[in-house]
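Input record, target 12 of the design panel.
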């Protein structure tokens, strides 16, 4: 298994419970494809570098997980169509 990190930028204009449900849904996709979530880091609300969908702020979440090499592609396919996710990036973490 490899270590990965999924970065999510979630819409800042939605209610807190909807925002947390969005993050839980992403975690559910990881677990559904055979991954194991090890840590979820909430960075809070931050100003975006540029306007996305007429928004200047978003909530940043970093989800660390262990998974097989084919899981990130399946995960990205699901996260890409999620409502309230402005941007995402899934990267493999180096074993340092």
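The sequence produced for target 12 reads:
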């Amino acid at each position: 298994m490899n270590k990965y990190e999924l970065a999510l930028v979630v819409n800042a204009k939605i209610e807190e419970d909807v925002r947390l449900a969005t993050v839980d849904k992403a975690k559910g996709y990881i677990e559904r494809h055979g991954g194991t979530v090890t840590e979820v880091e909430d960075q809070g609300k931050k100003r975006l570098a540029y306007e996305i969908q007429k928004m200047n702020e978003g909530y940043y979440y970093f989800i660390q997980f262990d998974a097989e090499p084919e899981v990130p592609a399946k995960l990205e396919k699901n996260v890409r169509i999620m409502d309230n996710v402005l941007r995402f990036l899934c990267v493999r973490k180096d074993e340092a």
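DSSP finds two helices and four strands in the chain.
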